């Protein structure tokens, strides 16, 4: 984790340089005034959406908490929406484009599932279950295999629509 953090300043510098290059290219194509107006309009839209997405995330969290459901999905969806709005609010055409993409529902679902998978990998199964609810697992019929001979491909779903109680045992975690 700490090794990756040392590249953050370099990545930020690269992002700023890339934003400048995109602004110059767009400015030459459509004119400097139009490019500047687009940056201001995207930033203003981002500021408006920051409030909306923040309130939406808070409401989703409250509703799931009051219903006694795990809040993880609403929280990750809210975080993805807030990130999209924040990227829109930052001055820049490229960050604005990424921000708009994160607010489009199909892309937002993909980003939310990616964030959820990353969070599930970093915490124990018990914490992941508390955050995101029971995991959907795929089961395969047949004799159990050792970790050495387990196939790499995902097994097929056996009992569709019927819940199978069980326990997820992660190798190397206690």
Number of strands: 0
CA radius of gyration = 22 Å
Low-confidence stretches: 150-158
> What is the average of the pLDDT values?
79
Number of helices: 7
Strand content: under 5%
Class derived from helix and strand content:
mainly alpha
Q: How many angstroms does the end-to-end distance come to?
A: 21 Å
Shape by Cα distribution: elongated
Order of helices and strands: HHHHHHH
Q: How much helicity do the residues have?
A: 55-70%
Main sheet makeup: none
Structure report:
This protein is an all-alpha fold. The protein has a domain at 16-132. It is built from 7 helices and no strands. It has helices spanning 2-5, 8-30, 32-66, 72-89, 93-103, 105-122, 125-132. Helix 2 (8-30) packs across helix 3 (32-66) and helix 4 (72-89) crosses helix 6. The radius of gyration is 22 Å and the shape is elongated. It starts with a helix and ends in a 42-residue tail after the last helix. The model is unreliable at 150-158 (pLDDT under 50).
């Amino acid at each position: 984790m700490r090794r990756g953090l040392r590249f953050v300043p370099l990545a930020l510098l690269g992002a700023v340089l890339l934003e400048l290059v995109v602004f110059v290219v767009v400015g030459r194509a459509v004119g400097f005034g139009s490019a500047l107006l687009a940056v201001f309009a995207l930033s203003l839209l981002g500021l408006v959406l920051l409030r909306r997405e923040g309130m939406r995330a808070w409401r989703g969290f409250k509703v799931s908490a009051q219903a006694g459901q795990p809040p993880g999905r609403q929280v990750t969806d809210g975080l993805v929406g807030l990130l999209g709005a924040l990227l829109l609010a930052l001055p820049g055409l490229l960050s604005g484009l990424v921000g708009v993409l994160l607010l489009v529902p199909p892309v937002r679902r993909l980003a939310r599932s990616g964030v959820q998978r990353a969070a599930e990998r970093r915490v124990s199964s018990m914490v992941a279950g508390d955050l995101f609810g029971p995991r959907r697992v795929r089961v395969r019929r047949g004799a159990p295999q050792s970790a050495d001979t387990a196939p790499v491909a995902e097994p097929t779903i056996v009992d569709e629509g019927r819940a199978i109680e069980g326990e997820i045992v992660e190798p190397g975690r206690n």
